[in-house]
Task: structure prediction
Amino acid sequence: MKPPLILINFKCFVSGKKALNLARICDEVSKNYKVNIAIAPQFTDIATIAKNVKIPVFAQHLDAVEKGAFTGHVSAEALKEAGAKGVIINHSEKKLQTEEIEKCVEIAKKYKLITVCCSDSLEEGKKIAKLKPNFIAYEDPILIGTGKAISRVKPDSVKKFVEVLRNFDSKVKVLCGAGISKGEDVAKALELGTVGVLVASSVVKARNPKKILIEFLNFIRKK
Ligand code: G3P
Result:
């Protein structure tokens, strides 16, 4: 997926028709502005949304299980069949142990799902980089939902995260997330060396998500 990337995490803020409407807005803006937007709706909305938009649809999590007696789990195979193109792994709201992250990345790769592994620290980021996910997203859980962007509140941490991981693996693609709410926040994230952002509240809870998205993309196009 060509950077820059805006990955919009719907979390449990929207579902059903509201999720589909938001997905269609993201699809329209991505097409009109020619900037990569991906979306992560709730599991129950993936299949319907994937049939109705062209932009990549991600799952917000997966369980490292294959076919079998795993009640209540969500498998990579089922996500793939539902039309998911990728998956967020280890989000701070769905934290996994290191061994689980490893298994999830492995099984996601087996089913050719793009992997976005979240990390809340440089130490964890270094461990995750060894698994070679497609993207590593640096998020500070304290800033999630605050509207105070990590790229502006903690620029040095973001810059260091990118530099250390890139020294570790020159191909690693770093996103950052938490509090991203203005075009300047996105522009700053790119200036710090990330290839995009993870966003939730400022878009998903907006009265006019299209206006917010267009502001983001206008700042990206200025780059
Ligand atoms: O996955 C991204 C999310 O955790 C960021 O949340 O609401 O601060 O954009 P928010």
Notes: The first strand starts at residue 5 and ends at 9. Residues 9, 91, 139, 144-145, 177-180, 198-202 surround SN-glycerol-3-phosphate (CB under 6 Å).
